[in-house]
Structures are given as structure tokens and as C-alpha cells.
Amino acid sequence: MQLQQLLYFVAVAETRHFTRAAERVHVSQPSLSQQIRGLEKELGADLFGRARGNVALTDAGEALLPLARRILADADTARHEVQELAQLRRGRVRLGATPSLCTGLLPEALRTFHDLHPGIQLLIEESGSHDLVRELARGSLDLALVVLPLPSPSPALTTIELLQEDLVVVSSATSKAPRRPVRIADLQGEPLVMFRHGYDLRELTVAACRAEGFDPSFTVEGGEMDAVLGFVRAGLGLAVVPSMVAERAGGGLRVTRLARPGLRRTIALAHRSDVAPPRAARELQRVLLDSRAAGRPQRG
Question: Strands 157-172, 253-257: parallel, antiparallel or unpaired by DSSP?
């Protein structure tokens, strides 16, 4: 049974005339009659009585008519939905990002995307790179913003470098922390506010300190980005955070750059290699890539 056959059937049922029905659906009358005969053969029943030139629905035709109308309406709805999605009027994007990127990079980029495509729903998963890679592999995300190098290299993922970002030291605005650039070695013995396990920034900071020959001292550990910044404002210690986060963190903080070579992280867009991202996700990817120049922090 084909949609075209049902369309022709409904046209005949409503006009009660084969020629007028053919004119309505813009086909020749013999072609329409042939399609109706094919439908009747497939269903095993006559759909129209044709006695004395009058066209009337049989019992089988009466039973089929409301079903055919419903099928055609559903097909039209499906066509409309797909067209809207293709034209980026509706749909969704499932984006994963590390918490620091949700605070720093994403707000402006998502606003730009929403202004361009207000009908697209944005679903954000906030987690560390390790968890985001796992969610991408499961198909639970369309795109993810991750920190390179990935915690466990995955040949099933495609990554596109988005930007490189400097890390800075933040302290309470009332602290005696120096304003000049400091070295990682200067953090030895300083009280640090540290992120929870699994946080990319935690691993990077601890590794940098150990490379200088010491283990960092924590006064508070286990928080998310907003909590860490709040603890620093309260004077509980220093924290190493991305420069974009520090720039947008508001008052109550002093920002100190790290002396060269400093600390830098690479942000990348990742998606599965074996499945092309949906159209809406590809458009968001384009917006994020276009935002590189405006959002790229100055290197210290």
C-alpha cells in the first residue's frame, strides 16, 4: 500500500468522480484508475461501486476512508516536522561541557546560537572530560567540549581544537597575594582551594605542582567551580582557574597571572567519528568555532 494510492483513493471518495479526482491530484484519469485497481487488488476488496456510471463507496471503502485520511495526515505531519528540523526551526542539541567551560565560554556562544535558532532546544550535560567522553561513546551526547589530551584516547572520537586558554591564580581581594606573575613553585605551602576528583583542573594543577617537586596543600577540596570561587572570596585559600572564568567571576577576587611558561589547557570539540552529528549540532559546532577569535584569551 502506497501513500500515493491512498491519496488517489481519498480524492475519488470525496469527489465521487474519477475524472474530477484525477484533475485534483494532477494525474491522468487512466493512471489514477490503475492505482485504485492496484490498491483494491492488494486489499482484496472493491472500494468503489461503479454501477451505471455512479461512483459510490463500498463497505470496504467506507471502512478505509477515515484510516486513509489519518495516514495521509500523519504523513503530512511527519514531512512538516522533518522539514522544520532540516531548516533548523525545531529540534534539540545535546551538548556536554566541563563546568569551567559552562561558566566561561558557553554563555555567550549559546546566546548567539539561540538568537539564530530559537526553536532548537539546548540540553547541557555538565561533567568532567572523562565522563563526557563516555557519554559521547554511548550516544547520549551530540557534541562535547573537552580538555585535551583526553584522559583515555579514543579512536572512535573526532576532536577539533577550539582554543588554548591560560590558567591564572585567584585569591581573595583582601588577601596579600602578590600582583606580579607567580611561578608554580611559589604555590608550595600556600593554602589551595581544590576541585573535586575527576575535575580536569584538579588533575592539571596537582600534576604541575608535583612536576615542581611538591604536593599542594588543600584547605578545602571537593567543590564545583562556583563553590571554589566562593571559598576563595571568603579567604579560605588560592585556586588555579581558567582565565575566562576569572574574567567573568565578578568582584571579590584578585587575579594573578602565572609566570612563563605558565599553565595552559587546550579546549576541543568532540563528537563520534562513526555517526555524523545532527544538523542542529553541526550548526552549534559552527557557532562555537566562529567564536574562537572573539573568545580566545590573551596568552601570558
Answer: antiparallel
254-to-126, 146, 162, 229 alpha-carbon distances in Å: 26, 27, 27, 11
Provide long-range contacts, Cβ within 8 A and 24+ apart, for 125-129.
Answer: 125/94, 125/95, 125/96, 125/97, 126/96, 126/97, 126/98, 126/99, 126/102, 127/96, 127/98, 127/99, 128/98, 128/198, 128/199, 128/200, 129/98, 129/200
**For 52-95, what is each residue's pLDDT tens digit?**
768 899 999 999 999 999 999 999 888 887 887 787 888 899 99
Phi and psi for 2 in degrees, rounded to 5?
-110, 150
* Interval 233-265: pLDDT, tens: 999 999 999 998 888 887 889 999 999 988 999
pTM score of the predicted model: 0.69
Taking the C-alpha atoms of residue 105 and residue 52, their distance in angstroms, rounded to an integer, is 76
Cβ atoms of 126 and 97 closer than 8 Å: yes
How many Å apart are CA 204 and CA 21, to the nearest integer? 72
Grid-cell match 574574567, residue found: 247
